[in-house]
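Hi there,

I know you've been waiting on this one. I reran it after we fixed the sequence typo, so this is the corrected version. Both the input and the resulting structure follow.
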Amino acid sequence: MTNQKPISCGLDFCCAANLNDCLCTASSSRYDFICVPLVHPLLKREFISGSAKNRPGPFTRPDLVLNSSDWNNLIIGKFSPFINVDSTDAIIRKNSEEALNQELALAMHFGLSGITFKLMSGIDKNTNLARIFCDKLSSNCIFQVWIQVPMENPIRQSYSYREEDCPIVESPWEWWNAFRIICDYNRKLGVALIVSHDLPEPAEIDRWLGEPVKCLILPTTIFLTNKKGYPVLSKAHQALVKRFGTLEIQFILTGASRYKSISYYHNYLDYLWKGCQTTGAVERFARGYEDYLQCPLQPLMDNLESQTYEIFEKDPVKYREYQSAIYEAIRDIMPKVQEEERKVVIMVVGAGRGPLVTASLNAADMASQQVKVYAVEKNPNAVLTLQALERDVWEDKVKVISCDMREWEAPEKADIIVSELLGSFGDNELSPECLDNVLKFLRDDGINIPQSYTSYIAPIQSSKLYNEVRQLRDKDKHPLTNFETPYVVHLQNKYDIAKPQALFTFEHPNRATVIDNSRYETTTFQVKQECVLHGFSGYFRTILYKHITLSIEPSTYSPEMFSWFPIFFPLKEPVYLKAEDQLVAHFWRKCSSKKVWYEWCISKPIPVSIHNPGGRSYTIGL
């Protein structure tokens, strides 16, 4: 992902006697916002009984000290530190509830865009707090809630020098997970991750990448001083910032400055932020589509638009590799056709606007071999482009056929059949059904490009995607439709629970006596640490010909290729997984005379009902 926006960095104040002075200090040092207490941290209020119950005068500053735009854009409010709504003491609990409600109302009145507080213990001590926020966030509140969570449990940090003495302690991620579950995954909840001096294990950091981390809180104490006397971060902390930088998070600097100017920290973070920028073909193409749900294309059922063709024709990798595969196939066929004194016959089925036709002609020129190309396309609008190219460019080398490949009666058999009917899951654009129907056009010793393709799945944690799916509504469809539909998505805000595993494989030409493209496979994944399963990411890898491949599967990914984003199969409900759990997933590819669909579920560690039974929510039309 390319960071289009400049860095957004806030400055934390433990106390703010004069808001305008604080804003002036922050602005002069290039900070974009400030975090300040809504009420002076030493001003304790009592609502039930006590000496402070009848204290005269206002309990905090009035709204007039700033205009509404500044309140909204420049201030993140912090709650009073004495608030403890889960106290076992009824008086303290009641006082805290009243104080919290008072400050929540104040944040609403000021029009703040965000409020924040620290979560410093397990859920058994935060249940009432979660209930209160669940209630407020379910109403018409306008602000985001940034829950400050330490990367490392403070108890573990205190045992850092005697690891063998360290007791088994809860991970702060578990505090956050329990809190957000009670709040029903409310999308207004986000994480403000407090970066520790000693970073946790890489796997724990990876897990946070699947959460709605809105900002990193950077204490000034974690900075080192370089030879020139300026603040810098260790290489490990630099790597951390860059990893989260791909999610376009914000930063908050907290603690006393150890340098002449607090701006030195900002300058350094800005330098790191710019280093997060990437300008590759995939990043340019995917800009704006990060974690954006899209329905998979159905080119067999729907006619694609010109813009869609244009976008995918710009891929710098796909057609180059197709051309290489066609060239190798022509080279292998040349001895036979030269002996028979004829041209190589190539059929491009699903020709679109002609990029594979061009690739075929280029490959023939490279091999110094004459070819005859049939360009078969069902979309009448794309056929117009093909016919223009046939007349003006290709001439007698190409014959354009305006027809569904499954209904065409070819005048001769092909030496090579070429298609690009692959989807994000390999077979989800019905390549198996289409290519099986044109098998009769292929010579007995003919070559199909692609030769095979395999789909892959991997379990992922992504609060972002879960909430995106949950926001979708369609009153005219089954209530679970949105959770029983796969989506094409450029995955960013996610944690990979385990590595992808192969699922369905299709090979061409398929010369089986009885062709059956239905499939059922079971895969088992080993869970490494506590996490939440929100669904499965799907990928594919195809062998075009011999050693020439295309892949979006992460371990074999074709660099710089952007024609396909991964596919996402959601689960209706998040599933909590424990370390060492075995996760068993089941996937079906079901077929009828008119449609194809997927069904999926898990059976371990807990059974979950079948998603999309009978294709009730999502099908691919034949």
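Quick highlight: The chain has a mean pLDDT of 92.

Best,
R. S.
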